[in-house]
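Bug: token stream looks shifted between consecutive jobs. Job 1:
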Amino acid sequence: MMPWARPCDLYSAPGRLIMKLVLGEAPEAIPASIDVRFGATAAAAKVDGGPIDRILKKFSARIRIVRVHAAAASFGQPGKGHRGYGDLEHALGLSRTFRVEAEHSCCIADLVDTLRQLDRVEQASPYYLCALPFLQTEHGPANLEQAWISREQINAPQAMAYEPGDPAVIVAIVDTGVAMEHPELYNRLRPGFDTVELGMRDLANGLQLLGDRSEADTDPADEVGHGTSCAAIIGAAGERIPPGLAGASGLLPIRVLGAAQITGKSEPIGIGALADIDAGVKTAIDLGAKVINMSFGTPESALEKHDPAPHADVVRYGLAHGCVMVAASGNSGKPERFSPAVLEGVIAVGAVNADGKLSAFSTTGEHVALCAPGERVLTAGLRDYQMVTGTSFAAPFVAATAALLVSRGRRRSHSVDAATVKRILAESAKPWSRGQSAGGGAGVLDAHAALRALDREIDRASQAGRNSNEDGW
């Protein structure tokens, strides 16, 4: 039960909400969350000195307000995160999105409803949290032969021999962080970032935060294992498991989900605020990520009618910057829409088993682009190796292949945009057998076929250019 919120399947933290103002209505003086977190400045106590503040004060005597996103132009400049927003950040609302902290007893549901009535408020919603589903994992020594099963299923060895990857093509793993000292990842990681800002006051009874909670740091160290498993599929060094499919591509760990323990469960789960996830995705984009792996999601059915689609603004921001956005379709085992997988421009990835059949747990739908191995995938864990299952681990295979496609384009001096990557991945996928495709997209990922398809496309474009030049003479 959440007495501060409307009945809803999605948990929201007490005393907090997210508010986006209309273009031209956002006060310049409100600081960015990151600057408040690191003590460079204090949170604001008011917004407009008018109707918004009157409403806020009516519901709570104490108010703290910060911007969710820092300006790209001011990144790394303490105390200046709220300055220098670009036209795109203004247009998409990233400069106009605020986290409002009220008293713990505040009825957030009524406050959100009231704010939505104001013309200058574009959106208002509870402070929703996302939790990664609890998955049974099999820990133990790595069996190299077993590890190659999922990689050979998508022709990964041939793909990596065909295109080794470009270190300048950065893949961001936006997740629970990465085990920075793991031998598979130790020398593969770029300096990452941590946007988690959860405290015990944000969680319900039965959940206990673990490890790094409120410390002001940028360390993306993993305390769950989920992000580490995804990262190793993309970029493992190949010490005891196959090398990551993205080859020499750069790896950027972004921690957006903290660790929590559910009473009665032995394995920790990843949990984080949707706003913190958004901040992490934007940070990855501002740090130069070309491909972003998003192995998380929120079902649309769990939201209230007037809630905005989670992650929509930062996905549009990424696409506008030429990023390839890849997301897990979900583990509900039914036709359903999870965000960000369902958002336009995102490559939604389902899971298949070792026989190439759609996994029973894989969320399906018209938005799913293709599938990849997602059952009993051997990869890195927090300290050792483990078998993992879920669409969370299918998505990294596709993200890694996307990085190879972008790398191949760079090698051949040919620009490859996100729409092209999505189309080529779908067109080159191994098609489903008759009657087996229900909601699983175009088929099963074939990394080698995707690279060869891109080469053919580049060859045709080059020939067309030569013919055009000859005709011009």
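Job 2, same session, no restart:
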Amino acid sequence: MGVLEGKVAVVTGSARGIGRATAELLVEEGASVLINDIDIDVAKQAASEIKGETAVFGGDLTKGDTPDRLVKAAIDAWGRIDIIVNNAGYTLDAPIHKMTDDAFQAMLDIHTVVPFKVIRAAAPHLREPAKRELAGGTEVFRKIVNVSSTSGVFGNPGQANYSSAKAAVIGLTRTMAKEWGQFRVNVNAVAFGFIETRMTAAKTSETVVDVGGRNVQVGIPQPMREVIESLIPVGRPGSPREAAGGIAFLCSPWSDYVSGQVLNVTGGLAAGMAG
């Protein structure tokens, strides 16, 4: 029996990359997981390939009431929510003097506003059960894990928009930990370093992804990848599975007395720096 047996998790952006690895790991530990992607067909395919209990929700979380409908999909499927992982996101890099208003706002929308709206929508399903449990003399811990980045902790050239949004996630995390600790909701963040995903692949003319009808150039120039790798004490980028391990710890009972923290998952990169 896994440590998350009987728990229900919502993982945004969970059809690919770190999100999918997280969904797979939570399912392995016994959780039922709502798989989410902007493209519902991709989400359905991922769910069909994950061995465990899943449901699917497709939609652009930056649009209208989509975060509310995401939460409703989990409640409709299982009647409860125990874990939220705010993972959905992408990058739109440029030096600040060339960055457009739209590019700056897009990063705030997906990385900061969406987690806020998902948490707000889930509030009744996290707070009200806790009130009943505490009145009955029992403690049941629920979990929120927000995905930040070392860019939000330390800054990163070319990512004023992304770094700002990911730094804001940390402020949201620490505030929610203080507001909802009384309801036994642990709220933490993970800050990833160099993890092998579509976003960090060697940049070529082919590394373009469709985000809600917008073609987004992703990836890192190969010379820059090599420089970053040389700075990682472990000596290589992390895998999505290794990244998911940090999230899974913060979703588990082993983190019941951990809240308001930022777990740097970096292979030792930037170890010892203030953050």
